[in-house]
Design goal:
RNaseH-like_sf; 6 strands; disordered C terminus; 40% helix; DUF4371 domain-containing protein; alpha+beta; two-stranded antiparallel ribbon; 7 helices
Amino acid sequence: MTDISHMSQMSLIFRYVRKSRDGTHVVKEDFAKFQDAHSSISDVDSPKECEGCCFTYEPSLTGEVLGKIVLNEINSMGLLQAKCVGIGTDGCSVMISEACGAVQEIRKKAVNAVRCPCFSHALNLSLSMSSSIKEVRHFMGGIVEATSFFTSSSKRNAVLQHVLKGQLSGLCETRMRRATQ
């Protein structure tokens, strides 16, 4: 996804099962990082030689390249690819193509992994579609107004910090679509 910073970023999020202190198993999900996909291409795809005299390099984010970027990140974090059992992506063809998608590239190393739809995309689509409902637009607008009210004043923000023991953060314009007009 190209965002407001004009970079093609992938978000890497890991979901895993962990045994809690009381012996029950708990599903955890942790954000690992935003990965600039174009800056990572050189790690997995080298420039092609052109007529023996020069190098041309047109960065292309193919499914194979995206899959290799994910595998490189998994390796760099010291995680075992063989323990990967799921791959969450959106439904675009570069990710899920049976012939050359990122999921297929990842499954070459993580053979037990199955593709799972990414629920953040479903949430974003739901929010986008619900923005046609006047009441939803007004509700979302109210959230934006309330956040702006507190964050635009250091005194109000200090009171909120004291009462809530935390701060409000605004909508992430690069990740979620806001339609409050």
